[in-house]
Automatic annotation (TrEMBL):
Its main location: membrane. Keywords: ATP-binding, Membrane, Nucleotide-binding, Transmembrane, Transmembrane helix. It is found in: Cell membrane. InterPro entries: AAA+_ATPase (IPR003593), ABC1_TM_dom (IPR011527), ABC1_TM_sf (IPR036640), ABC_transporter-like_ATP-bd (IPR003439), ABC_transporter-like_CS (IPR017871), P-loop_NTPase (IPR027417), Type_1_exporter (IPR039421). This is ABC transporter ATP-binding protein. Residues 359-595 form the ABC transporter domain. Residues 1-20 are annotated as: Disordered. The chain crosses the membrane at residues 38-62, 74-92, 164-192, 265-283. It holds the Pfam family ABC_membrane. It is a multi-pass membrane protein. Residues 39-325 form the ABC transmembrane type-1 domain.
């Protein structure tokens, strides 16, 4: 019995309730490893801000001193100083961009690897509940959407803030009265930008969810399996219509996100652009009244500084909006990083240097639903001596696959324990479990890579000779050798260039390379025709020789020679014994054989049944 494959949603009591905001200190903690580089950025930003406010003072000296007094030498020096400040400022900006972008990309890298590594530690249950497209969207779209924030926005925030402070100080030094007039509206502008930021954050959260839905649709419907299903079911047109509807919703959200608060922010820009004109107008009125409050040079220098103030001030307000928008993306990423690890390696995990392969199930209970810990398996007592074989049979949904998944800790028991060589598998290192236990299932997964790369996934350092030996043992070498590119042949998406039997034998060859002492065969031949099944079964017999083997049987004719056969019924061991013993009892096992007989008439075992 497998868990339902439903879409995972973050654990929330009320899905409509607003999520608590991400603490800013948690976002800032991402930059902590790069404190030294950030300090350099701060120095460059400060130096750039100081240099940028020098030019208006040079301009005032040009207008009030050098030109009126005809001092050409001083004029040349002042102009040269203005050019030099522009050059120095440009150099500082380039260096600042280089360092800040490097830091931002390292933070992006850290986030991507942290999410990927954390997901690698999740139990199989998480992935059976979660759409692959949702996971891909979190890593690609959400983290990618934060790129501007972590690479340039953070630096822009510091840079603009520093520029504003330096410029205000310089403006006060020129004339404090004009400075007060210039700053009167800034608190109102800050309040408006905060409102806009909250609005965009909400829309961004909706947009990323829709982007995840779209990614899932693409991943599912445009895979090889999805294309086959869509065309054979005549659903290609309806899938296109559904995708069009989803894409249309995303387009609407993109427009809403782009236009949220756009008019309000533009009004701020218009008002700030009008401020210099207001300053000139006020100065003109006072001059006409015969009482100019400032000199022409001071006025021009002040307006120049005012322009320098408004540019970073508007940028600062926009940056604040972008930061609030990005917090929605950080929230989605932290949701994944905060997922509890259901199956983890204990701090004092045991490493077994050598594994004999004895497996025991001691009063094992298991359920996918935490509220029903015995919902799938209850009171399982089994012992598989090292080197022996156990076949598990039963009706669909009796718990056969669930039983096998407990041995490599794909799931953890909810009661009792499973031991390997007398040690609870929950106490073993993951390295010991992966080295000791090999799994061959009916759902063979192959990467879109060459045959050799797929085989070496089990043993990266395997030699060509070892690949050939494993392929020969799995009875697939001759077929691989007959291909134009041999072991360099691309297997295609999910191995679709190979037949079902060929993929199974490739999976068996991969497991042979791994050479595990314990082998789990989960209905490895159930989807094959009789002729292909015989070829695969021969490869399986070669693989199972001398190993502890647990076989989840679909066709009972393949398990007659098993040392033990366990019949599961509703999650419990209903019968246990050899093929002959169970046959003579005439119980559930015999009934299963009789049911299979019409499909496989002529086999000696079925005649006995």
């Amino acid at each position: 019995m497998r868990p339902d494959r439903t879409t995972w949603t973050p654990p929330e009591r009320d899905p409509d309730a607003p999520r608590p905001p991400v603490p800013l200190r948690r976002v800032l903690a991402l930059f902590r490893p790069y404190r030294g580089r950030l300090a350099l950025v701060g120095v460059l930003v400060g130096a750039s801000a100081v240099v940028s406010v020098v030019t208006p003072f040079l301009l005032r000296a040009v207008l009030d001193v050098a030109i009126p007094q005809g001092r050409t030498g001083l004029l040349s020096l002042l102009v040269l100083g203005m050019v030099a400040t522009a050059v120095v400022n440009s150099v500082f900006n380039v260096l600042q961009t280089l360092v800040s972008t490097t830091v931002g990309q390292r933070v992006m890298h850290d986030l991507r690897t942290a999410v990927y590594t954390h997901l690698q530690r999740q139990s199989l249950a998480f992935f059976t509940r979660t759409r692959t497209g949702e996971v891909q969207s979190r890593i690609a779209n959400d983290i990618g959407g934060m790129q501007s924030t972590v690479t340039s926005t953070a630096t822009s925030l510091v840079s603009n803030l520093t520029s504003v402070v330096a410029t205000v100080v310089a403006m006060v030094a020129l004339d404090w009265r004009l400075t007060v007039v210039s700053l009167l509206l800034l608190p109102v502008f800050a309040w408006i930008s905060r409102r806009v930021g909250r609005e965009r954050r909400k829309i961004t959260s909706e947009r990323q969810k829709q982007l995840a839905v779209l990614s899932s649709a693409v991943q599912e419907s445009l895979s090889v399996s999805g294309i086959l299903l869509g065309r054979t079911m005549g659903r290609s047109d309806s899938l296109s219509r559904e995708f069009t509807e989803q894409s249309d919703q995303l387009a609407d959200l993109e427009v809403r996100s782009s236009m949220a608060g756009r008019w309000r922010m533009n009004v701020i820009g218009i008002v700030m652009s009008a401020m210099p004109a207001a300053i000139y107008w006020a100065a003109g009125l006072t001059s006409a009244a015969g009482a100019p409050i400032v000199s022409i040079g001071t006025l021009v220098a002040f307006v120049s500084l005012q322009q320098q103030l408004f540019r970073p001030a508007v940028s600062l307000l926009s940056t604040g909006v972008e930061v609030q928008t990005s917090m929605a993306l950080f929230q989605r990423i932290f949701e994944y990083l905060d997922l509890p690890v259901e199956i983890d390696e204990p701090a004092d995990a045991v490493h077994l240097p050598a594994v004999r392969g004895e497996v025991r199930f001691e009063r094992v209970d298991f359920g996918y639903d935490p509220e029903r810990p015995t919902g799938t398996l209850a009171g399982i007592e089994l012992t598989i001596p090292a080197g022996s074989s156990l076949a598990v049979v039963g009706e669909t949904g009796s718990g056969k696959t669930s039983l096998s998944y407990l041995v490599p800790r794909l799931y953890d028991v909810t009661g009792g324990r499973v031991t390997l060589d007398g040690t609870d598998v929950r106490a073993l290192t993951f390295e010991t479990l992966s080295r000791a236990i090999g799994v061959v299932s009916q759902e063979t997964y192959l990467f879109h890579a060459s045959v050799a790369e797929n085989l070496r996934f089990a043993k990266p350092d395997a030699t060509d000779e070892q690949l050939v030996a494993a392929a020969r043992a799995a009875q697939i070498h001759e077929h691989i050798a007959s291909l134009p590119d041999g072991y360099d042949t691309l297997v295609g998406e999910r191995g679709y260039r190979f037949s079902g039997g060929e993929k199974q034998r490739l999976a068996i060859a991969r497991t042979i390379l791994r050479n595990p002492p314990v082998l789990i065969l989960d209905e490895a031949t159930s989807a094959l025709d009789n002729q292909t099944e015989r070829a695969v079964q021969q490869a399986i017999d070669t693989l199972a020789a001398g190993r502890t083997t647990i076989t989840i049987a679909h066709r009972l004719s393949t398990i007659r020679e098993a040392d033990q056969i366990a019949v599961l019924e509703r999650g419990r061991v209903a019968e246990l014994g050899t093929h002959q013993e169970l046959l003579e009892r005439g119980g559930r096992y015999a009934a299963l054989l009789r049911r299979e007989a019409p499909a496989r008439a002529g086999e000696p075992v079925l005649a006995q049944a």
